[in-house]
Description:
- The structure holds two protein chains of two kinds.
- Chain A is built from one helix and no strands.
- Chain A is mainly α.
- Helix content of chain A is 93%, strand content 0%.
- In chain B, helix 7 runs antiparallel to helix 19.
- Helix content of chain B is 72%, strand content 0%.
- Chain B has one domain.
Amino acid sequence: xxxxxxxxxxxxxxxxxxxxxxxxxxxxxxxxxxxxxxxxxxxxx
Amino acid sequence: xxxxxxxxxxxxxxxxxxxxxxxxxxxxxxxxxxxxxxxxxxxxxxxxxxxxxxxxxxxxxxxxxxxxxxxxxxxxxxxxxxxxxxxxxxxxxxxxxxxxxxxxxxxxxxxxxxxxxxxxxxxxxxxxxxxxxxxxxxxxxxxxxxxxxxxxxxxxxxxxxxxxxxxxxxxxxxxxxxxxxxxxxxxxxxxxxxxxxxxxxxxxxxxxxxxxxxxxxxxxxxxxxxxxxxxxxxxxxxxxxxxxxxxxxxxxxxxxxxxxxxxxxxxxxxxxxxxxxxxxxxxxxxxxxxxxxxxxxxxxxxxxxxxxxxxxxxxxxxxxxxxxxxxxxxxxxxxxxxxxxxxxxxxxxxxxxxxxxxxxxxxxxxxxxx
Lengths: 45, 370
């Protein structure tokens, strides 16, 4: 495959892979953060 | 008479040529645009003065000797200043809208389509592949990333591409609305989105840590930019180092902006700037912006095919990373269709995601081409 096509496919593909992985990780980390913040609240009540 | 002749030869008039005078006019035009029209004055003014200085006959850009050469060499060629700018941008950025609605990360990726459309356009116009990559990244609407990529791949294009990137960032309110209106119906522009949920402090602390890990693992060449960006954001969100956060946002940012602007301007002597290639760069820059806007909106339309809660496609246009201008434009065009439609916070999500997307695109170019 030519360098131009490699640059295009790996570039655009890379951006979408990063953003998709980031999307999943952000959702998971949000759940973790919310769970961690609820824990002390439960202990207090 | 001999004394007068001696005085004349010690002066610099003999070293002037018409190209220098044209560049003075361009520098003065930039000064005018910065002061009178308010076009990105923080950068355009130092860039204009750098252009003026380098087009006066002096040794100011002589390698290993000139003052501006040292600024340029250690600041930009060594790629130190753009990551420091990213540190400041990170410290200024609130990722709350992205965390509240992570789907907008994809819109930040979608707008990068414009980068690759322009990449092909630049190749078609006869630029080599490294230069085409740097011209393409103008579509990301991110000055520091453009400079960073140019320093790695095509230093000879740095000045021209930086000026094009910053000029078009200032022209976002002019370039984007016609494209936005062309690609959306009035009914689509009226789509109202549900208010964003409140994001906790812990979520905001997690975000830069997770982002830097993910991006550096997938695109190691984006580590310098994204590392500084996420570090700056962590300083902000941690809440325990306010002094460092404020320094990154203000004093440090202002200092590096001065060095960046004046040394980028100094890369534009007449013999480099007054070529037909420059016209090509400026035309491709506007194409890049329009295509990035169109790609962002296109992806928003595509996402709406699968989403239960529709998103307003205008926020896709904010995926170009001119923060916060692109988000403001999306909000303005939306409120023209429906006065009570508040899109600003929704558009901030793709807007800050666009900063990440452009840095990742630059990292991908470096990893393939270097």
